[in-house]
Amino acid sequence: MPQARAICKASTSAIPRCIMRRMRPREETITVGGIGVHTWIGGQGDPLLVLHGAGGNRGWTRWLDLVSERFTVWAPTHPGFGRSGDADWMDGIDDLARFHLWFIDAAGLGRPHVLGHSIGGWTAAEMAAMSPGAINRLILVAPVGLKPETGEILDIFFYSPAQLLAKTIHDPKTVPEWDALYGTPPTPAQLEIAERNREMTARLTWKPYMHNPRLAHFLPRVTNPALIVWGREDQIVPVECGEQYRRLLPNARLTVLEKCSHLPPIEQPDAFARLVLDFLGGESRR
Amino acid sequence: MKLYYFSEMPHHEFPDAEGDKYPSLRLEFPNRFFDRNKAAENYRRYLTEYELADQVGFEGLMINEHHSTPSCVNVGVNMTAAVLARTTQRAKILLLGNILPIEDNPVRMAEQLAMADLISGGRVLSGFVRGVGVETWWANTNPVHNRERFEECHDLILKCWTAEGPFRWEGRHYHFRHVNPWCLPLQKPHPPIWIPGTASPETAIWAGRRGYTYVPFLVPFDIARELFDYYRQGAAEVGRTVTPDNLGFLICAVTADTTARAVEAGKHFVWRMGPTLRAPVEWFAPVGMRSRAGQQFALRARPRSLATMSYEELRDGHFIIAGTPDEVAERFALVRRELGVGHLLLEAQESRMDHPTTMRSIELMGAKVIPAVARL
Fold it and tell me: What is residue A280's three-state secondary structure?
């Protein structure tokens, strides 16, 4: 299996299990810079680093299961989020980007594909701008990070979680995992994690709000093949930001999903997974 | 017990039905409802009331600061302090206070307070507050840094007042390479520092350690006692003895020649308990602004929001005191017995309480109430 050989070469002896058939997803804590990073790992094939958005790491959801048939997914929880350790010293997404470049080294991922959603997408874009050679293909899903030219990025801290969810998802009836993800009232432990996630998001994105005025100047450096995915009905980050990313990244294309808001991987997991596999599969066949 | 006069300088000059159309009177209620001519009149009026409070014998004139809200259009507490420093003669000027976490230049803050202290002849009482969330939104300061910035801003102001310049400050949130203020307070080592409290045990402990005057705002007596216990805990840590002079309390109060008139006037305070505090929780408490301990204490401190209480309940709970001079003096004495405070801060004008009513209340407080409670 070419993918399996690739990952073994990339990570040498760090992941002997890569020679096994597709792995069952598992959770590990990987220590990076003294911070324990709670990480979901699973699948087979070339490594794909998945960086979550402000809502936190949702775990092994349907789209990951589909994508992990061909790629080994590494989905760390950002420091300060979920069950990962604190990073009160971080001040911005550029800190998080440097951290995840370090994570790639610490986890022995070689030169992984990187997929990031929302603030995870911004993080992925910063990582690519800092060190384009450290990553393979880049997938940005409704990333923040650039200031819209006409619209505004919704001030997510100004609204309640319930108000936000209504804006984040276009139509709950079409979301296959709605019941599993949102169907029951959150437990106290889940509420605590949600609060923690919001706090860390505020720490990283408060001002300038959800963007880095310098990022646009660095994106032309990123010649990696890049796929940008957006929901046509995104009420959090206007789709015009997707156009900006496409213009600034020299080797990018933009795909806009209809009847979809800010969570394409959750709202349309099958279509989204297909987009990802088609885009990443292209290289592995070469 | 000493009495302090306070007005929020409200701008209740719009039809209430217009305000009701918005999720809050704060932040998003459009400023096209700001009436410039009324505001010009009101500022002069409110300053006249403060000047009378000075003349009739109030210990201090309390002023505060808010932004983006008609509930308080005193948008610059240092500016008001500078005006009162020149137009009043003897009362202390209690700024309660400057909102430290949203301040980007503590050196300028130290200079401005020093200048007000100098002009007033050493009458400044310098209150420092963390602010409500609304001011954090207004200033766009990261709420997760609120406490860190409060403490660092405080530390730098104190250093400006007490350390010889020039010096350098390289902190977590503030960075100045050449600090050497050529304006220092008249009072030595510096103006007394006051700290308000509503729900944060950490703030009470912090103030207790430093011996600052600590003043809970509009909380039930049992919560005030609990906050004072935290204050005493902080004081005990450093071997400091707590006296009534370290403790204050804030309530709303008005007096008049008859009970009926006072009770009628007191209804104006209901506006500040409900309509002006109405807002989504995220606006008053943005994420990360309060610690977990503070959040839990806040829930206990406010089992019922003031907004849900009737006027009678607000009077029964001593959030509002309205009556003849004898009646209010008696209630103030009760506050003193219940809480052992040395300073009672009176929010004494609100909403649409008119100028004659306010002036008469100030006169009566001076003639009858201040002497009566001075002995307590």
Answer: helix
The position carrying tokens 């050449």 is: B178
Torsion of CA B200, B204, B210, B213, to 10 degrees: 110
Cα–Cα nearest to B363, from B54, B44, B10, B8: B54
Which chain B residues are Cβ-neighbours of A206 within 8 angstroms?
Answer: 140, 142-144
- B70 near B25, Cβ under 8 Å? yes
> CA B300 to CA B305: how far, in whole Å?
11
Q: Do A203 and B286 touch (CB under 8 A)?
A: no
Structure tokens at A111: 């030169």
Q: What would be the CATH architecture of the domain defined by B2-374?
A: Alpha-Beta Barrel (3.20)
Contact, B62 vs B96, CB < 8 A? yes
Question: Quick check: A207 and B287 CB within 8 A?
Answer: no
Domain ranges of chain B: 2-374
Contact, A38 vs A83, CB < 8 A? yes
pLDDT for the residue B200: 86
The shortest CB-CB distance from B142 to any of A158, A195, A207 is to: A207
Q: Which of A206, A207, A210, A211 to mutate to test the interface with B (most CBs of B within 10 A)?
A: A206
Q: Give the whole-angstrom CA distance, residue B113 versus residue B159.
A: 14
Chains A, B: CB contacts under 8 A, how many? 34
Backbone φ and ψ for A210, nearest 5 degrees, come out as 55, 20
Residues in A whose CB is inside 8 Å of some CB of B read 157-160, 195, 198-199, 201-203, 206-207
pLDDT band at A152; cut points 50, 70, 90: very high
Q: How far apart are CA A260 and CA B220, in angstroms?
A: 49
CA distance A78 to A58: 12
* Distance from C-alpha of A142 to C-alpha of A138, rounded to nearest angstrom: 13
Confidence of residue A20 (pLDDT cuts 50, 70, 90): very low
| pLDDT surpasses 80 at A15 | no
Which residues does chain B have with pLDDT short of 70?
A: 303
**A chain contacts of residue B142, beta-carbon cutoff 8 Å:** 202-203, 206-207
Q: With a cut of 60, say whether residue A6 has pLDDT above it.
A: no
| Domains with residue ranges and CATH for chain A | 2-280 (3.40.50.1820)
Whether the predicted pLDDT of A170 surpasses 70: yes
pLDDT tens for A33-49 read 999 999 999 999 999 99
Q: Which chain B residues are Cβ-neighbours of A164 within 8 angstroms?
A: none
A202–B137 C-beta distance less than 8 A: no
Residues of B in Cβ contact (< 8 Å) with A207: 140, 142
Say whether the peptide bond before residue B371 is cis (omega within 30 degrees of 0).
no
Chain A residues inside the 8 Å CB shell of B140 = 206-207
Query: What per-residue confidence (pLDDT) applies to B301?
Result: 72
